[in-house]
Amino acid sequence: MQARFLALALLLVTPALASCGFTPLYAAPGVSPGLSTIETVAPQGRTGFLLGEALDDAFARDLAKPAVWKLKIDLKETRTPRGRRVDATASRYELVLKANWKLVDAATGTVALEGETSTEVTYDRAEQAYAGIVASQDAQARAASELARKIQLQLAVWIARGRGG
């Protein structure tokens, strides 16, 4: 009975969604191919490398073709102790990544788009030294991945509005 109701509801809702004009961002013509023409110039350091790798994966960069755009990123990483124990040591840390980025035409060097994107993650301070290093590195990876997702979304919207072609 419940399966029939669900099927009927889907049948009724589908035409309404199709007629409302909703188009998923990545279904817009040219968004995915536009993102694949962006070459990431990653900043130095572990977090910069992780951010560059996440952006390259997100853009699905086609290495067989020359880059049309270069994404230049200036990355600032801030680690702040949060929460205090009785012995005045931090129990948690907050990692804030802030990226000032510019999308530059690869041929002419002119800036087409620029933005500022940031993200923050927290992690526990571990008692063992190795566990603390692993927690810190995991936080860097999570922050870089989230920052890449935010930058990708901003660039996809720009391309979908017809400014990237």
Tally of alpha and pi helices: 4
CATH topology: Double Stranded RNA Binding Domain
CATH homologous superfamily title? Lipoprotein like domain
Rg, rounded, reads 21 Å
Q: Report the biggest beta sheet as strand number plus sense, adding barrel if it closes.
A: 4 strands, mixed
- The portion of residues assigned to helices is 40-55%
Give the number of domains.
Answer: 1
- SS-based class: alpha+beta
Low-confidence stretches: none
| CATH class label | Alpha Beta
- Give the helices and strands as they follow along the chain: HHEHEEEH
Strand content: 25-35%
Characterize this entry briefly:
This protein has four helices and four strands. With 165 residues, the protein is of the alpha+beta class. It has a four-stranded mixed beta sheet.
Task: Describe it.
The chain has 165 residues and is α+β, with helices and mostly antiparallel strands. It has a single domain (28-160), classed as 2-Layer Sandwich (Double Stranded RNA Binding Domain), CATH 3.30.160. The protein has 4 helices and 4 strands. A 4-stranded mixed beta sheet has the order 1-2-3-4. It is flat. The chain starts with a helix and ends in a 5-residue tail after the last helix. The model has no long low-confidence stretch (mean pLDDT 84).
